[in-house]
Design goal:
The model has no long low-confidence stretch (mean pLDDT 95). The protein has 17 helices and 16 strands. The protein is of the alpha/beta class. β8, α9 and β9 form a beta-alpha-beta unit. 49% of the residues are buried. The strands form four sheets. A seven-stranded mixed beta sheet has the order 7-13-12-11-8-9-10.
Length: 458
């Protein structure tokens, strides 16, 4: 069964990617039902995965003639937007710091994102050195939400007041994001011939992906690329940790550490970039520039590079350089407020999954694959810009969803039989929601910890 909205949304995403419409003729969806939400979350999940799969099918067809069929299971797509990993005899740490969460202010609600130690320290410099959520709540209650948001952000922290959709639409940042394309794609200088040999079964084998992204959209993108054979090398700074997410997203990758403030590590990074085919990065709008790696520098180091960038609050407007995460964007853009009214609740109600992160990740992956296809035919590289805020706008623009029967509860039959020997213990993955005829989505190595590999290509 195929939702008409899922099909229309997929076509819209594929058009934003400037893909060949003929590839969509072999696309089908299955599974009735939806995740419970006032928004069309299941349709967004299915369409974004379909767009990435269609990009793979187009790449195969460009090289071998004839586009393979693409099938997306809407139920499994929705489940993968929550998590795919099922540990056996161990558990993944909780994703949230004890202080993180939604707090009532004097005039509304605010969300504090304190998972990174520096972000937690920034919030507590403003609110006082409290050790528990109840004490923080008492202090937050004395603040007006926009004043507290501004103060914490100015201190280097991450916070978002809960706005309505209408308030976001008239906000200067909301207005700026509404004028941006879903994906901003620009062809760049030609590079040396890659001499890629695209095989139908492992279409990204031989493609080198340098991954500078962290929680969560970028790692979803690089996980997808690894699933079709790309050599993904993730680079994190020496101090970074995200134990609640790493087992989910490092599947098929190697993970190394470099300090881009160190001269020696900068030299190693530049050597990696020179040999990369795709660069994924999720730094704030001006962060790589401040490190000395602006777009012209990246293009000089690697002519023909497919450079895919992610930002939180968009690429224009006063908040373009603000730190942000999925849960914060849901507050800022009015999604959590709409959920509260839909559920007749007395507090913010987010989406049932981190759909902005996951959907943006699959769009980034699709854009990277389309960049590979274009480079094979034109030798040009590309720069691509995506943002969580623009993906939120896409979801909001679909309107509100009518009541829909929920999917059947997950069972053991939904799990792939293979045992994954992760760095933390044995686990299973859910069956993949995407099937491309003749090109299975599979990973060559299990999830691994950050810093477990050397910063070098295979």
């Amino acid at each position: 069964m195929m939702s008409d909205l899922t099909a229309r949304l997929t076509a819209s995403l594929w058009d934003a990617l400037d893909g060949d419409p003929a590839v969509l003729h072999g696309l089908r969806f299955s599974s009735a039902g939806a995740l419970p939400s006032t928004f069309f979350v299941t349709d967004l999940a299915s369409a974004s995965i379909a767009a990435a799969g269609t990009a793979i099918a187009e790449l195969i067809g460009t090289q071998h003639g004839g586009f393979p069929s693409v099938h997306v299971d809407r139920r499994l797509a929705s489940f993968w937007f929550a998590s795919s990993l099922r540990p056996i005899g161990w558990s993944v740490p909780g994703p949230w710091d004890p202080i993180a969460g939604d707090y009532r202010t004097a005039d509304g609600w605010i969300r504090l994102h304190t998972n990174a130690p520096s972000h937690r320290d920034a919030a507590l410099r403003v609110l006082g050195r409290h050790d528990d959520k109840a004490a923080v709540a008492l202090t937050v209650a004395r603040w007006r939400m926009l004043d507290l948001e501004t103060t914490i952000v100015a201190e280097g922290g991450c916070a978002a007041a809960m706005r309505s959709i209408d308030a976001w639409r008239v906000d200067p940042q909301g207005r700026a994001v509404s004028t941006e394309p879903l994906l901003h794609v620009v062809a760049t200088e030609r590079g040396a011939d890659a001499h890629w040999r695209i095989t139908s079964a492992r279409p990204l084998a031989g493609i080198r992906v340098l991954d500078l992204t962290r929680v969560l959209a970028g790692p979803v993108a690089s996980r997808f690329l690894a699933g079709y054979g790309a050599d993904v090398l993730r680079i994190d700074p020496p101090w970074w940790s995200e134990p609640g997410v790493v087992p989910e997203v490092t599947l098929g990758k190697r993970c190394a550490r470099l300090d881009l403030h160190s001269a020696a590590d900068r030299t190693r990074f530049e050597a990696l970039l020179i040999d990369a085919d795709v660069l994924l990065h999720g730094y704030r709008a001006d962060a790589l520039e401040r490190l000395g790696y602006d777009a012209p520098m990246r293009a000089r180091l690697r002519p023909g590079l497919i450079d895919v960038a992610l930002n939180a609050y968009g690429w224009s407007g006063p908040l373009r350089s603000r730190r942000g995460f999925d849960s914060l964007l849901q507050m800022s853009t009015g999604i959590a407020n709409a959920g509260m009214h839909w559920q007749h609740a007395d507090r913010p109600v987010p989406l049932p999954v981190q759909a902005l992160d996951h959907a943006t990740g699959y769009l980034m992956a699709a854009a990277a694959v389309r960049g590979i296809t274009r480079r094979l035919t034109t030798t040009h590289g590309a720069t691509v810009r995506a943002s969580l805020a623009r993906t939120a706008q896409l979801l909001i623009d679909q309107g509100t969803a009518p009541p829909t029967p929920a999917f059947a509860t997950e069972t053991a039959a939904d799990r792939a039989p293979a045992i994954e020997a992760t760095a933390w213990g044995a686990a299973q993955r859910l069956i993949t929601p995407l099937t491309i005829h003749g090109a299975p989505l599979r990973w060559d190595s299990p999830a691994t910890d950050l810093g477990s590999a050397e910063p070098q290509w295979r």
